[in-house]
């Protein structure tokens, strides 16, 4: 059965795509959930509209990611941790810590977007890559400094 996808379906396609699926899959899963409609002449016109809408949305999202990467490039964050005399940390600085520090500065960064091969375990300045989407990256400096103990 030929159908038109109205919403993104995993391993099948994106909105506006005409695909051939088995009758049972279309009747029992896709059509009742509103994920697709049967391919008619009117549906083909709808497919063209959906494709253009999806393309505009994708371009806007791509532009937004590009601007976010540009704003994020060159930003630095400071993370303070307790450290021994030989500058080794008691613990480590993870991708989540860097993401939290960037969020505190007003950037919307998830810890999954921070590319850190292994946790940072010494004091110093580290260049960390933040991956925004699939094609945009920004280089961020992470300053790991000694936490000063306050006596109260």
Task: Please describe what this structure looks like.
This protein has two domains: 65 residues, Ribosomal protein L9, N-terminal domain (Ribosomal Protein L9, domain 1); 74 residues, Ribosomal protein L9, C-terminal domain (Ribosomal Protein L9, domain 2, Roll). The longest helix is centred in the middle third of the chain and has 32 residues. A hairpin with a 3-residue loop joins strand 8 and strand 9. The relative contact order is 0.15. The chain is built from three helices and nine strands; from the N terminus they run ββαβαββαββββ. With 152 residues, it is of the alpha+beta class. The chain has a four-stranded mixed beta sheet with strand order 4-9-8-6.
Main attributes?
four-stranded mixed sheet; 152 residues; three-stranded antiparallel sheet; Ribosomal Protein L9, domain 1; elongated; Ribosomal Protein L9, domain 2; alpha+beta; 9 strands; 2 domains; 3 helices; 33% helix; single chain
Briefly, what CATH class of the largest domain? Alpha Beta
Give the tally of structural domains.
2
The separation of the N and C termini measures 74 Å
Query: What is the approximate shape?
Result: elongated
Radius of gyration: 24 Å
Architecture of the largest domain in CATH?
A: Roll
Please trace the helix and strand order, writing H or E for each element. Answer: EEHEHEEHEEEE
Describe the sheet with the most strands. 4 strands, mixed
Helix content: 25-40%
Strand content: 25-35%
Strand order of the largest sheet: 4-9-8-6
Mean pLDDT: 87
CATH topology of the largest domain: Ribosomal Protein L9, domain 2
Q: DSSP helix count?
A: 3
Number of DSSP-assigned strands: 9
Low-confidence stretches: none
Instruction: Give the structural class.
Output: alpha+beta
CATH superfamily of the largest domain: Ribosomal protein L9, C-terminal domain
């Amino acid at each position: 059965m030929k159908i038109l996808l109205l919403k993104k379906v995993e391993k099948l396609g994106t909105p506006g795509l005409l695909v051939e699926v088995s009758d049972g899959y279309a009747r029992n899963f896709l059509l009742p959930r509103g994920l697709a409609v049967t391919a008619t002449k009117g549906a083909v016109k709808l497919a063209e509209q959906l494709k253009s809408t999806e393309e505009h949305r994708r371009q806007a999202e791509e532009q937004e990611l590009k601007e976010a990467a540009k704003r994020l490039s060159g930003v630095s964050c400071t993370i303070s941790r307790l450290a021994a005399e030989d500058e080794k940390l008691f613990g480590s600085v993870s991708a989540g810590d860097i993401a939290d520090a960037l969020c505190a500065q007003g950037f919307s960064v998830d810890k999954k977007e921070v590319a850190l091969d292994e946790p940072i375990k010494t004091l110093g300045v580290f260049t960390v890559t933040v991956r925004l989407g699939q094609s945009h990256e920004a280089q961020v400096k992470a300053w790991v400094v000694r936490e000063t103990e306050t006596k109260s």
